[in-house]
């Protein structure tokens, strides 16, 4: 080999150059890998990882629910010096965080026998849970009947009808009133179950009365129910009190957040309607690391802020003599409540912030302009809470919140210029100065 090299010195030079180039390329690749690894370590939520908790029994539409991205909200992160991350729940098939709840509630009801294939799921909802149930129910062979307040954005009822759900709109009243939308939905489930029982009994009696001729039973048409919607009975989802709501986030959303951040988060904040989201996530995160701070952001008219901060369930709208009126004075939908639900009672919170309608409106426009995020009212309120929490903790912390749904369900109110003008809520901020109040 030495003779060959001596005979061909040019070949030796080329070989040496090739070896050097390979060494440089290898070193560069190694350096790139190290830099990329460090970058990913700093921002672990940017990684696409398979969550080991995925329920492999699900298929079809149900299997597409959950495992949503955790995205960095650049404008808020840069403004506060914290890493503010939003769980993009608007990317679920039904367009909101409530898809998880719908899946969990229906699966548990089917497993327990409270709901059967062909049955009707009823729910009282301000919109998102109803839409999720209407989306998910057919995937389990069920139908959906929803009762909603008549002041909810009209596009929500239009979406429900397009999804094939039966929609019943009622006037907004206190939960103590028999005609509160939740109480009406509960009655509809009972009515459906009674109707199914009556149909089964009628079919049984008809079968027993058939005349046998020479040992033969004449062929007759199958007994048909009065309403095909109710033929298999009803099941009241009861999202406020059904702990499947809490479990969906404790077993599912919380672990996803922990996995996506690799446990490197300092705080979590979200608003509460039923309380399931903030309760399930806060309890899971606290069990993983008690030092993680969990906070509530509460809209106008809700009593949860005072309950968390003072131990008393109270809001000025709950004054004597107004109990049977609509207590809420807010344009945010699906959040805020004046009673303690079983789901909310499961929450482990370190404190609470109060948000305003104007702050939510301004936040939604700020995020659309600076991040391209087109979000709904509850998502905007959650981001208000994230900034409040960042201001309180100081720079260098990682904060997670929930982007519940997009702005597509809020076009007639929250994203309607005339509606906002009529309520004195026209956005005017150029930055985040609307959050400068103490």
Secondary structure blueprint with pairings:
Layout: H1 2-7, H2 9-42, E1 70-72, H3 74-80, E2 83-88, H4 98-112, E3 120-124, H5 128-136, E4 143-149, H6 154-162, E5 166-170, H7 181-208, E6 234-236, H8 244-261, E7 267-270, H9 276-288, E8 293-298, H10 304-310, E9 351-354, H11 357-371, H12 377-393, E10 398-403, H13 417-422
Parallel strand pairs: 2-10, 3-4, 3-6, 4-5, 7-8, 7-10, 8-9
Antiparallel strand pairs: 1-2
Helix pairs in contact: 4-5, 4-8, 8-9, 11-12
The helix tally amounts to 13
Give the biggest beta sheet.
6 strands, mixed
CATH architecture of the largest domain: 3-Layer(aba) Sandwich
Number of strands: 10
Mean pLDDT: 83
Order of helices and strands: HHEHEHEHEHEHEHEHEHEHHEH
Instruction: Assign the CATH topology of the largest domain.
Output: Rossmann fold
- Please give the radius of gyration in angstroms: 28 Å
Strand-pairing-aware structural class: alpha/beta
Uncertain ranges: 1-41, 47-56, 210-230, 319-327
CATH class of the largest domain: Alpha Beta
Catalytic activity: O-acetyl-L-serine + hydrogen sulfide = L-cysteine + acetate
Cofactor: pyridoxal 5'-phosphate
Subcellular location: Mitochondrion outer membrane
Domain Tryptophan synthase beta chain-like PALP: 64-405
Characterise this structure.
This protein is an alpha/beta fold and 438 residues long. It folds into two domains: 49-91 and 249-435, Rossmann fold; 98-206 and 224-236, 3-Layer(aba) Sandwich (Rossmann fold). 42% of the residues lie in helices and 11% in strands. It is built from 13 helices and ten strands. It has a six-stranded mixed sheet with strand order 1-2-10-7-8-9, with helices on both faces. A four-stranded parallel sheet has the order 5-4-3-6, sandwiched between helices. The longest helix has 34 residues, at 9-42. It starts with a helix and ends in a 16-residue tail after the last helix. 44% of the residues are buried. The model is unreliable at 1-41, 47-56, 210-230 and 319-327 (pLDDT under 50). It catalyses: O-acetyl-L-serine + hydrogen sulfide = L-cysteine + acetate. InterPro entries: Cys_Synth/Cystath_Beta-Synth, P-phosphate_BS, TrpB-like_PALP, TrpB-like_PALP_sf.
């Amino acid at each position: 080999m030495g003779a060959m090299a001596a005979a061909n010195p040019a070949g030796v030079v080329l070989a040496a150059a090739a070896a050097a180039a390979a060494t440089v390329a290898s070193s560069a690749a190694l350096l790139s890998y190290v830099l990329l690894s460090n970058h990913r370590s700093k921002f672990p939520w940017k990684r696409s990882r398979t969550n080991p908790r995925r329920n492999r029994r699900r298929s079809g539409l149900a299997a597409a629910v959950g495992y949503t991205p955790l995205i960095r909200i650049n404008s808020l992160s840069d403004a506060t010096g914290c890493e503010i991350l939003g769980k993009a729940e608007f990317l679920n098939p039904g367009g909101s965080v409530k898809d998880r709840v719908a899946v969990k509630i229906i699966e548990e009801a089917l497993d327990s026998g409270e709901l059967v294939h062909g049955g009707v799921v009823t729910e009282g909802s301000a919109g998102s849970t109803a839409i999720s149930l209407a989306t998910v129910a057919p995937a389990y062979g069920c139908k959906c009947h929803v009762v909603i307040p008549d002041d909810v954005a009209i596009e929500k009822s239009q979406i429900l009808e397009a999804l094939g759900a039966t929609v019943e709109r009622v006037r907004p009243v206190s939960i103590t009133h028999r005609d509160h939308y939740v109480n009406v939905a509960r009655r509809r489930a009972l009515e459906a179950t009674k109707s199914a029982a009556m149909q089964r009994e009628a079919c049984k009696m008809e079968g027993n009365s058939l005349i046998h001729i020479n040992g033969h039973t004449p062929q007759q048409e199958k007994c048909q129910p009065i309403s095909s919607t109710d033929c298999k009975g009803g099941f009241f989802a009861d999202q406020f009190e059904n702990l499947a709501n809490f479990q969906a986030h404790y077993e599912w959303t919380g672990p996803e957040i922990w996995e996506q951040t690799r446990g490197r988060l300092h705080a979590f904040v979200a608003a509460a309607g039923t309380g399931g989201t903030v309760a399930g996530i806060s309890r899971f995160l606290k069990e993983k690391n008690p030092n993680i701070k969990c906070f509530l952001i509460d809209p106008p008219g809700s009593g949860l802020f005072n309950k968390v901060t003072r131990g008393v369930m109270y809001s000025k709208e709950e004054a004597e003599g107004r109990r049977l009126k609509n207590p809420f004075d807010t344009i945010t939908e699906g959040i805020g409540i004046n009673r303690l639900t079983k789901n909310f009672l499961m929450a482990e919170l370190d404190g609470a912030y109060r948000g305003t309608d104007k702050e939510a409106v301004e936040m939604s426009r700020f995020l659309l302009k600076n991040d391209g995020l087109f979000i709904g009212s509850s998502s905007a309120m959650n981001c208000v809470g994230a900034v409040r929490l960042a201001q309180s903790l100081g720079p260098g912390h990682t904060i997670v919140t929930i982007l519940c749904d997009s702005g597509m369900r809020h076009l007639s109110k929250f994203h309607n210029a005339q509606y906002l003008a009529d309520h004195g809520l026209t956005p005017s901020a150029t930055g985040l100065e609307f959050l400068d109040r103490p």
